[in-house]
């Protein structure tokens, strides 16, 4: 296996592209909205123990699930 990369070509990570696309899909929209609401609530308080960890994990899980169905089709 020989991979030739030309200096004038920008290499784009397909996983990063898919994560961005999947994060904007309707399937993950509810999780993103909950995360955004939590972040707004937490940043609006002077002192809190809330971390939005659960909301972040739920959103990441949704994005990763979406990516897992598409990533290997794009790999060469």
Automatic annotation (TrEMBL):
Its main location: mitochondrion. It is found in: Mitochondrion inner membrane. Keywords: Disulfide bond, Electron transport, Membrane, Mitochondrion, Mitochondrion inner membrane, Respiratory chain, Transport. Transmembrane segments: none annotated. It is a peripheral membrane protein. The keyword Secreted does not apply. One of its GO terms (biological process) is mitochondrial electron transport, ubiquinol to cytochrome c. Component of the ubiquinol-cytochrome c oxidoreductase, a multisubunit transmembrane complex that is part of the mitochondrial electron transport chain which drives oxidative phosphorylation. This is Cytochrome b-c1 complex subunit 6. It comes from Strigamia maritima.
